[in-house]
Design a protein that fits this description.
141 residues, alpha+beta, four-stranded antiparallel beta sheet, 4 helices, 7 strands
């Protein structure tokens, strides 16, 4: 997910997503979850939340990740193996790493949309249920 490899940041990012029982790997289950929920047809997509150092949005992505982790630090959770000093140390390394000319972040976000026949009077033919990282929305098409 980070290249050149930055193992401590990988571990910290995973710890960030596992807080409060979140599943950082739910994306691979989205299509199956929609089928189980009654979707007749499913489309999946991969959205890249990432960039390389040579791209203009790279520094914004780095800053965003740092703010997310600082706001909801794994160190603030009871029973966490992370301390605030650990988190700060890793984030400093991450900032230094981000200045490398070959630094790349590849964070795929898996999304899925399931379609089924609408049972609502007057609705169009399909009803879409879209799932992005476990967040569910139902939209009439």
């Amino acid at each position: 997910r980070f290249y050149p490899p930055l193992e401590d940041m990988d571990r910290l990012w995973t710890a960030y997503y596992q807080q409060d029982g979140l599943d950082p790997f739910v994306g691979v289950q989205l299509g199956s979850l929609l089928i189980t929920a009654g979707a007749e047809r499913v489309q999946t997509k991969v959205i890249n939340f990432g960039a390389c150092a040579s791209e203009p949005e790279f520094s914004m992505i780095v800053d965003n990740m740092i703010k997310m982790i600082k706001y909801a630090s794994p160190a603030s959770r009871e029973g966490s193996s992370w301390t605030f000093d650990d988190v700060s140390r890793v984030l400093v390394k991450f900032q230094e790493w981000s200045k490398l000319p070959n630094a790349c972040i590849i964070k795929p976000i898996l999304a899925a949309v399931g379609y089924k026949k609408s049972s609502r009077p007057g609705a169009l033919d399909d009803e879409a249920v879209s799932v992005l990282r476990g967040e569910v929305k139902v939209e009439g098409l």
